[in-house]
């Protein structure tokens, strides 16, 4: 008889942290001249991005963060985008700036991110913040990786001494998660599209983090019994009835009977990403207004 994994309820943890942020913001508002402010810049009409941006703005409203988002048409030039970032860098009401990725092909995302003031870079993607993460210095951390660490902490999972394997090596997710798990004393392995025999690598993992973007790439036979499985992937797929649904990078239905802990999609890592964005914005607000 197989035992089912503990389901890591990211939605519940996210709601709990958002509740705490809301009280914190309410309290701080009494000694501050203004609420915290976040600006999400979106270019073009990618429907998935539009949905995330709406979700972020709704969550801001719930915790008392003001939104100064701007939506640009697809044909926006690099100069216009850079000018908008420069304006937000100077805008005292704004504590956090995020450029929603991916940008349309004609735009240079790296140049845009590098233009954000590091102290307002609530996505943690500016080279200064990535450098701080690398060196173990305090700074703004990328939201999804920080959200994964917060989930592990909430479930009493200490990475120390554990074998942690991350599949995917992007700057947004895979690499910063590896650095955070390393800082938490895990033994870290990274796999990617050039790793032969992925299953042999993932089967060693006590903590398996998957951030690839391939629906159900990881099957039950690739999971070590009792492992902690964190599925970062979000893929929109159409099932055999023609209905659209979200699925992760892990075959959840089979992996849950092998794993010790597992995150569902939706309701796992996604809600934590948004929550850590709000947390980073509040942190930046506190630092910028000297409210500590
Ligand atoms: N839950 C959340 O909050 C978030 C979810 N996401 C989701 O996470 C997923 C990953 O996002 P992101 O990191 O930005 O994606 P990227 O496309 O930037 O990176 C994907 C990584 O997966 C690797 N890869 C691709 N195919 C394979 C394969 N067959 N086997 C092993 N590795 C492979 C790539 O390897 P290589 O480097 O060799 O090309 C690359 O390192 C997506 O589904 C995205 O939607 C992203 C951000 C937040
Ligand atoms: N600069 C930048 N920073 C990002 O952090 C960033 C980005 N660009 N581009 C796209 C990815 C993706 N991403 C998600 C955010 C929230 C959910 C989320 O809330 N998901 C919910 C539900 C989603 C739904 O139902 O549609 C869930 O998984 O339960 C998912 C994915 C942030 N990203």
TrEMBL record:
Q: Name one GO cellular component term.
A: cytosol
**Enzyme Commission identifier(s):** 1.5.1.5, 3.5.4.9
Q: Which reaction is catalysed here? A: (6R)-5,10-methylene-5,6,7,8-tetrahydrofolate + NADP(+) = (6R)-5,10-methenyltetrahydrofolate + NADPH; (6R)-5,10-methenyltetrahydrofolate + H2O = (6R)-10-formyltetrahydrofolate + H(+)
Per UniProt, residues of the Tetrahydrofolate dehydrogenase/cyclohydrolase catalytic domain are: 8-123
Q: Give residue ranges for domain Tetrahydrofolate dehydrogenase/cyclohydrolase NAD(P)-binding.
A: 142-286
Residue sites binding NADP(+) per the record? 168-170, 234
Q: Which Pfam families match?
A: THF_DHG_CYH, THF_DHG_CYH_C
Per the record, the pathway is: One-carbon metabolism; tetrahydrofolate interconversion
Q: Which CDD domains match?
A: NAD_bind_m-THF_DH_Cyclohyd (cd01080)
Single Gene Ontology MF annotation: methylenetetrahydrofolate dehydrogenase (NADP+) activity
Q: Which UniProt keywords apply?
A: Amino-acid biosynthesis, Histidine biosynthesis, Hydrolase, Methionine biosynthesis, Multifunctional enzyme, NADP, One-carbon metabolism, Oxidoreductase, Purine biosynthesis
Give GO terms for biological process. Answer: L-histidine biosynthetic process; methionine biosynthetic process; purine nucleotide biosynthetic process; tetrahydrofolate interconversion
Q: According to its UniProt entry, what is the function of this protein?
A: Catalyzes the oxidation of 5,10-methylenetetrahydrofolate to 5,10-methenyltetrahydrofolate and then the hydrolysis of 5,10-methenyltetrahydrofolate to 10-formyltetrahydrofolate.
Return the similarity comment.
Belongs to the tetrahydrofolate dehydrogenase/cyclohydrolase family.
Q: Tell me which NCBIfam families the record gives.
A: PRK10792.1 (NF008058), PRK14186.1 (NF010783)
Describe the subunit structure: Homodimer.
Please report the name of this protein according to its UniProt entry: Bifunctional protein FolD
Its source organism is Oscillatoria acuminata PCC 6304
């Amino acid at each position: 008889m197989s035992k089912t994994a503990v389901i890591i309820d990211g939605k519940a943890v996210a709601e709990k942290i958002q509740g705490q942020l809301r009280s914190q913001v309410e309290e701080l508002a009494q000694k501050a001249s203004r609420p915290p402010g976040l600006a999400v810049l979106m270019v073009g009409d990618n429907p998935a991005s539009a949905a995330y941006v709406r979700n972020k703005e709704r969550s801001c409203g719930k915790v008392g963060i003001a939104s100064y988002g701007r939506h640009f048409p697809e044909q926006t030039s690099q100069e216009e985008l850079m000018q908008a970032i420069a304006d937000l860098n100077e805008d005292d009401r704004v504590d956090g700036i995020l450029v929603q990725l991916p940008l349309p092909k004609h735009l240079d995302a790296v140049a845009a991110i590098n233009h954000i003031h590091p102290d307002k870079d609530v996505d943690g993607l500016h080279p200064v913040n990535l450098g701080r993460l690398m060196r173990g210095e305090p700074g703004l951390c990328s939201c999804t990786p920080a959200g994964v660490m917060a989930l592990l902490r909430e479930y009493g999972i200490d990475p120390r001494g554990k074998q942690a394997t991350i599949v995917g090596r992007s700057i947004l997710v895979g690499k910063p998660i590896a650095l955070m798990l390393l800082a938490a004393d895990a033994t870290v392995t990274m796999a990617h599209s050039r790793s032969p025999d992925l299953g042999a690598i993932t089967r060693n993992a006590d903590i398996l983090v998957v951030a690839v973007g391939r629906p159900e790439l990881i099957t039950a036979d690739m999971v070590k019994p009792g492992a902690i499985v964190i599925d970062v992937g979000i893929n929109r797929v159409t099932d055999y009835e023609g209905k659209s649904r979200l699925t992760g990078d892990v075959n959840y239905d089979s992996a849950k009977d092998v794993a010790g802990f597992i995150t569902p999609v939706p309701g796992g890592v996604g809600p934590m990403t948004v929550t850590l964005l709000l947390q980073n914005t509040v942190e930046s607000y506190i630092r910028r207004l000297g409210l500590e």
